[in-house]
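Record 1 of the preview.
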Amino acid sequence: MIRHKYLFPQSLPRLAVLLGLLFITSVSGYAQSKPSAGKSANAISAIRESDIKRDLFALAGDHFRGREGGSLDELKASVWIAEQLRAIGLQPAGDDGTFFQFFHIQRTRITETSRLNIGSHQLTHGEDAFILAPAIASVDAPLVFVGTGTPDDLAKVDIKGKAVALAFSGTGPPELSYRRFLFGTMNRKAAELIKAGAVAVVWVSDAQAQSYFERWTTGLERGRYDLPGGPNTRIFSQAPTVWLPASALEWVKQPGQQFTNVVNVESFSYPSVNIVAKVPGTDPTLKNEHILFSTHQDHDGVRRAVAGDSIWNGADDNASGCVATMALARAFVQKPAKRSALFVFHGAEERGLLGSRYYVDKPTVPRESIVAVLNAEMIGRNAPDSACILGQQPPHRNSADLVNAALTANTLTGMTFKLDTLWDKPDHPEGWYFRSDHLPYARVNIPAIAFTSLLHVDYHTPKDEPERIDTSKVTNITRWMYLTGWDIANRPQRPAIDKGFKLER
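->
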């Protein structure tokens, strides 16, 4: 069964009124706060840790409830950001003279009417079992347990027409990469078993996988997201893959059990939004070109409580990038560059880079006028002097000019960061280059890099709180981004695209 719903929250009309009022004040506010010319070569002194800390605790506090993409909380946080930009003195650069560019995201999930039974155990998706993909299924078959699924284990059992249960086993990479190893292994092995004749696959966690069952399965509850018509909106039928906790192992082993699974799928449409603002350039010709400072305002919202905390605030991911981008805006307002500075806070990044994908497809300035993208993604954790540029080395580097500008600027702030290069390599298990908002721009040959301080143990957990952020580090990375952008924004020539640039996937 497929159900389609078009969801616009009942309180959205009140939000629309607020947005309208903000549009009115944005125009008048900009007229009253035009950037001053200033006398300094740049305005790096406008980037202050006190501003960054204040904004961080506001945006990543419980008031905005984790800013989940497609929710009223994301919209409320977006209005707050736009109001800060108006007060700073930026010009609205979204649709229809506002700070906003609205778009729709489509969500596909497993319905509450879906049923899952193994023997006498009635299981609920999202609680004591998780179905890995929201696909239509109807299975009623004998369950066979095949140990850890080794060739020797499988040789002893006829799996054709059966639901196959197996215990997860295998030592993966370190914790920060284990999640991708876990899901990759489960999906790959399940595909092999289904190809060999299994009609369903049931995974039971081992001790290491169990911690991820408890921490990372909230995304499976949500389902899949995409822009309308995107690949994740397609609803299809397939043999189900089920994930169980380690506590299920003893009863799953029992012989003679029946596996019954009826999966129904439903689809929803939600509003999300990009926030777009600019500081016009001062050069009569170059002001028609833009250097784009990119970030995203959404996170994971309200989810299953961990240690009593159900609000996943996303202080590092990515309130840190947002407050940095606001600080960059203050500097460009104080001292405009020759080229225009464009600031884009992308919505629904956590749902699959949806806001940046939408903006690249429907930019509010001519796409060819964007000379470079500097993306801020998680810049507030780990060692104070460590950082990473995504897009620094081939095949991810698409502009040596832009990368060299960033490397030079790294030596000019008084805090020279030691740059990690491993996470930008194509064989890194996290595939970090492909997971932030610079990517859609790079795919259309716009010079693009991302500044990041990389993952940490609180990534996508309720422990990603503002109290854990190194605001001094955020300030220093912001100044580094500023000097890079200031350089590019004032050069006579725009940075060139590397000849033959092609991503590995």
